[in-house]
Amino acid sequence: MPQVPIIMPQLGESIAEATIVDIKVKPGDEVVDDQEIIDVETNKAVMGVTTPCKGKIDKISVQLSSRTREKNRRERW
Length: 77
What we know:
Oligomer: single chain
Low-confidence stretches: none
Number of domains: 1
CATH superfamily: RNA polymerase II/Efflux pump adaptor protein, barrel-sandwich hybrid domain
CATH class: Mainly Beta
CATH architecture: Beta Barrel
């Protein structure tokens, strides 16, 4: 099965960074298309990051409370 990275979605024009506030899955979990797996918090709201397709979580490369910047939006989780 090919690996598909989870990429932070664009959060908005005026949002520069977000903090990982919840990781809802662990390696080995099966997920479905468009399932929320990570919550990120900005200065405006908490938003869910969803899966692009169904599959199995291989690894999680972010940590709870870590911050990601909009300029790094393409980083893979």
